[in-house]
Every structure is written in C-alpha cells, then in structure tokens.
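Email to the structure team, subject: Diadenylate cyclase model.

Hi all, the expression group asked for a predicted structure before they design truncation constructs. Nothing fancy, just the tokens so they can compare against earlier work. One-line instruction: predict Diadenylate cyclase, return tokens.
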Amino acid sequence: MDSILLLWQNLTSITVSDIIDIAVVSFLIYQVVKLVRETSSARIIRGVIVLIVAMWISNILQLTMVNYLFQTVLTWGILVIAIVFQPELRRVLERVGKSKLSSLMLRNDTIPVEEKAVLEIVHACSEMSWSRTGALIIFERKESLEDVIRTGTIVNADVKDELVRNIFYEGAPLHDGAMIIRGGRVHAAGCVLPLSPNPNLAKELGTRHRAAVGMSENADSVSLVVSEETGSISIAIDGQLQRHLVPEQLDEILRTELLVKEELEQQHEEMTVLAKIMDKIQGFGGKKR
Ligand SMILES: Nc1ncnc2c1ncn2[C@@H]1O[C@H](COP(=O)(O)OP(=O)(O)OP(=O)(O)O)[C@@H](O)[C@H]1O
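Reply from the structure team: attached below.
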C-alpha cells in the first residue's frame, strides 16, 4: 500500500522538465546504440579494454572524478551492448535454461523425463504384446497435435508402465483410441486419429494400424501400435510402418527418434544462434563509418 502511495506521489510530481529530461536521455541512448551498431566489433572491444585499463589507472592515482566518469561510461556501454545484442542474448539464455546443467541442478534424478517415458513405454508395450492388449501411442514432436488432443480426454500424468497398461486395459473407459505423449508425459488418451488412405498397407491390418500410419503422414510424430490380434509391435514414422518389432528394437528406434535426434536438433539450433551472432559481429567489422 505504502509503495503504491509512493508511486502515485512520484507520478503526480512529474514536471515538464522531467519529461524533457527523459526524452533527451532516451534520444542519447538511441544515438549511442546506433553508433555501436555502425562501429566495428574490434573497435568496440578495443574501446572497452581501454576504458577498463583507464579506470584501473585512475583508481590507482586516486583520480576520483575521472574514475567516476569512466565507471559511468562503462556501465552505460554494457547497457548499450545488451540492447544491441538483445535477440541473440535472449536465445542463448533460453538455451541455458533448457540445458542439462540446469536440469542437473534442479533435479536429483539425472534421467530426463523423456528418457524415463521411453523406458516405461517399452516395458508397458512388451507386457501388452505378451497379453495381446491393443494399444495406440503417439509421441508428439515439433508439430502440435492439438486438433487430435481435442477429440480425447486430458490425462496429464507421468508416464508409468502401470498407468499405460491400465488405460489400454480392455473395458477401461479410455482404452479405445490413441494416447498422446507430450514432453515425456501422458498428455491425453482416447483420441481419434486421421486414417491413412494408403492402398498399399497390408490387407490384414485394420483401423488401429491405419490410424497410426495416418497420424505419421499428417505430422512429424511417432506412432506406436500393439496389435490386439497378434501382439505384434509396430512403429509408423513419416507414413512408413515398421512391423514385428521386438522390445529391444522398439527401445532403439524410440531412443534414436525421440532422444538422439532431439539432442542433435538442439545442438544444431545452438550452432545456428552462435553463427548468427558471429555474422552480426563480422557485419559490424565490415561496415565503414
Ligand atoms: N481413427 C482412429 N483413431 C484412434 N484409434 C482408432 C481409430 N480407428 C480405430 N482405432 C482403434 O483401433 C481399434 C480397432 O482396431 P482394429 O481391430 O480395427 O485394428 P487393427 O489394426 O486390426 O488392430 P489389432 O491388430 O489390434 O486388431 C478401435 O477399437 C480403436 O481403439
């Protein structure tokens, strides 16, 4: 309450000269940002080094006023550089937030949630294959499956072998339709998928397999099927169905598609951001004033 009152008092005490003050400072910052953008990166770095050395010397010589001046220029300089490289810095910080190091610091268990999900699903599928329980599981990747999710029921639970088997247990309310795994969690179940029109699919395959292939034709997701009739495990990616997989093969394919490829894509994105920053720095260096 006090702070609101204080803010109100401050706002009502703003004068015309304050507004001119803010406008002049904003204009100056804008001009400095423009200048930095047009100056070569080598010159910026040299300038910063010269400033730091001068500040250090002025401190030793006890030149209070000069030291204060250098400090102010350096502080503003850092602010200006942060503004100039704002898009690149934001992307790099976002990456740091998602990095393994930060996840290690935040969680005690070191296995990422996506890897745990793969382990649990492989276990559940080998059990369901043995017990001839029909299952249809879709792993969402980059492309959103929101339209399909809307046709089912939101579950939002950790992926557990027992939960997966429970959902597909014949007679359970959500056993019909597909389960959607999003971000290593059971996001939804009982979802209706698009059926593939592919005339070359084996005649003995029914709608569960056709739906798995159909989903993989419509998005970059990975479809996993356990046949109720034969217990056979299949995977559909990009419209291609791989059939009669043993649990070890299923584990290997899921790891490659969902863990290794994701990791590689993340590394590729990081390299692209880095290359863009280097390009920008080189662009500054190449420009003539
Ligand atoms: N469009 C769809 N979206 C999601 N699930 C579907 C869809 N069509 C069928 N299914 C699921 O597949 C089941 C029917 O499987 P069906 O026997 O026709 O297929 P199948 O490919 O022969 O599979 P199985 O080998 O398990 O018998 C439905 O009960 C439902 O759970």
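The chain has two domains: 2-103, 113-262. The CA atoms of residues 101 and 150 lie 35 Å apart. Ping us if the truncation boundaries need rechecking.
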